Amino acid sequence: MAEVPLRVLIVDDEAPARRRLRELLDDCASALPLAVVGEAQNGREAVELLQSIPVDLVLTDIHMPDMDGLELARHVLKVPHTPLVVFTTAFHEHALQAFEVNAVDYLVKPVRVQRLLAALQKVPKLRPLTPEKLSELPQSTRRFLSVTERSRVVLVPVDEVVYLKAELKYITIRTAQREHLLEESLTRLEQEFGSRFVRIHRNCLVSRDHIRGFERRVNDDGDAHWEVLLNGVTETLPVSRRQQFVVREVGRELAA
Amino acid sequence: MLACLPDMRPIIRHNGTEPALPDLRNLGTIVRILLAVTGAALLAAFVREPRWEALPGALVEASAAVAPALLLALALLWACAPWLSRQPYRTGAIAVAGIAFVATLAGHTLAGLIAPRAADSLLRELAFALLAVVGLAAYFRLRARALSPALVEARLQALQARIRPHFLFNSINGVLSLVRSDPRRAEEALLDLADLFRVLMRDNRDLAPLADEVHLCRQYLDLEKLRLGERLVVDWNVKSMPEDALVPPLCLQPLLENAVYHGIEPSPVPATLSVNIFLSRSEVHAILRNPYRDDGGRHHRGNRMAIANIRERLALHFDAEAALESKVTKDSYEVHIRMPYRTAAPSKGGDARAAKAAGNVVDLSAERAKPRARTAMTITGGRSWLKSRSVS
Question: Which A residues 111-140 touch B at CB under 8 Å?
Answer without folding.
Answer: none
